[in-house]
Amino acid sequence: MGLFDLQGWANGSNLQATADISTRLRPVNRANHGICIHSLTLHGPYPFDTAGNYTLPSSVEAAARDLLIPFVRIYAGYEDKARLGSWSLYADRLAFLLGRIGVPAENCIVCIGYPDSSVEVPPSEYALGVNALRAMGIRRFELFEIENEPYNRQWRSSPPWSRFTYDGDGEAQYAEYLMAVWSALQENWRDGDMLLVNKHPAYSATTQYWHRSLLLRTMHYWQQIAQHRYMPGSVARNAYTLSFEQWVIAVTKQYTAHLLQDLDLGSKCVTEWWSSSVNSDPGHPAFPNRDGNIYGLIMGAYRIMYVHEMDGIRSCTKWHLFDGNYANVDETKRFLVLKPYMPSKRGYSYWLFYYLNRYVGDWLHPVSGTAPIVTLQDAANQNQTALKTPVMVSSTDNRIYIWLLNCDWSNTVNASITISGRTISSASGVMLKRDDPDEQGWTDETPAGLVSDVSATVNANTVSMTLQPHSLVLLEVS
After folding, report:
1. Claim to verify: residue 16 and residue 37 sit in the same structural domain
2. Which structural domain range is residue 387 located in?
3. Are residues 244 and 99 in the same domain?
């Protein structure tokens, strides 16, 4: 596809490209459309109370199931287990929830440690938890993340914080803990994957620790890398001080580039991600709505398009499915997908994943041509060169799906995609677009005002349409 390295693309005022359906680049990895489940009991009484009673409102459960979620990650396993009383009940409740929302157990990463890594879970408890989870029928849990953000002393100035210091001693302590957990698991460990948590240097005060050195010193003890890859910006350069184009094009590429690091050592699971202006409040009255509204939606779509063309990414899980806050607080504004306390609410990101999961095929295909290419400064004042109108094409045996983004806030762009290798006759789909940059990013139970039906003309095997400003278009071509 060449989205990231621009291979096969030249600069032009309009989008004119060719997609070769006869060439299959790789299977579509639907796990890139994953979503985190926060926990079973820690966010108030949802989705379970501490007695293990299922409390999720039926409308919220149905909405989650309608997302067609392909992959999830859940954390705080040990704390949930302590509240519920046993690992067997924890495993039963988690398997029950996944069954209700339609996610196979093997498509779930379980992080057993405490949310802030402040308390050590004995390695023997990992073994007990893993054994209980992997005993849940034919479809077993296979992916386990060792700690959640154990490097969090980098940004936390006071407790609760990680028991691991953010230096060489802390890295060594985590490595020893990882080895101890691995040893505890060996008696019954067969085909499961243990995920080591590490951190990219660009997020760090130091590039020496908690990065490649940690991966290398523990390679025998992990099978995949777990990383968080939020797109946070900075106090001076964020979604309110940068232009829309800088934020969704340059900053997205800046933080997506980090995913390429260390893939020579192993594949990665991005266990949390999204646009997040946390700790970068510029004093704007609408802060932090842009993380969750059309800004975040376009940014998220671009990131997912990038990740689809990357080798070595096992999964990406957006933070997070069931918002547990009572009030309209900052985390709700940023990350809302579904809110059990407000069952009728749907985040803009809900509709993003709802439609992405319906407009995607089984195979990715190469796309090349001309498109507007821009060079913009990112959150670190570095230049990033990228497509202003990225495109992705996938297919099944009898359908073709085209994703089109226009990352220009003010201007339309004419787009034409010629399909090579298959005869086509029609193209229609949906457009996601909103014009208020500061509104809260949620709707009621229908996406009216955010999502509209669109169609494109088809002539001489070419799909043509005008892309509206700051919009995502998803087309089914037949």
Report:
1. no
2. 9-26+362-477
3. yes
91 neighbors 140 (Cβ within 8 angstroms): no
Determine the pLDDT at residue 137: 67
Q: What is the CATH number of the domain that holds 417?
A: 2.60.40.1180
Residues 259 and 375 occupy one common structural domain: no
Q: Retrieve residue 224's tokens.
A: 């995949």
Is the whole-model pTM more than 0.90? yes
Which 3 state secondary structure label does DSSP give 82? helix
Query: In this structure, are strands 400-406 and 193-197 parallel, antiparallel, or unpaired?
Result: unpaired
How far is residue 394's CA from residue 401's CA, in Å, rounded to a whole number? 5
Sheet hosting strand 391-395, strand order edge to edge: 9-11, 367-371, 15-20, 413-420, 462-467, 451-459, 427-433, 471-477, 400-406, 391-395, 363-364, 26-27
CA angle 123, 127, 128 (to 5 degrees): 115
Say if strands 383-387 and 346-347 run parallel, antiparallel, or are unpaired.
unpaired
Q: How confident is the model at residue 327 (pLDDT cuts 50, 70, 90)?
A: low
Instruction: Place 151 in a pLDDT band, splitting at 50, 70 and 90.
Output: confident
Residue 1 clears pLDDT 70, i.e. is over it: no
Tell me which of 356, 376, 401 is where a domain ends. Answer: 356
In angstroms, the CA 57 to CA 41 distance is 15
- In a shared domain, residues 37 and 84: yes
Pairing of the two strands 451-459 and 427-433: antiparallel
Which residue is listed with tokens 């001489």? 460
Is residue 207 scored above 80 in pLDDT? Answer: no
Contacts of 316 (CB under 8 A, 6+ apart): 31, 32, 33, 34, 269, 270, 273, 304, 307
* Residue 1 counted as domain residue: no
Q: Contact at 8 Å (CB) between 240 and 282?
A: yes
> Which residues neighbour 37 within 8 Å (Cβ) at sequence distance 6 or greater?
47, 72, 73, 74, 97, 320, 321, 322
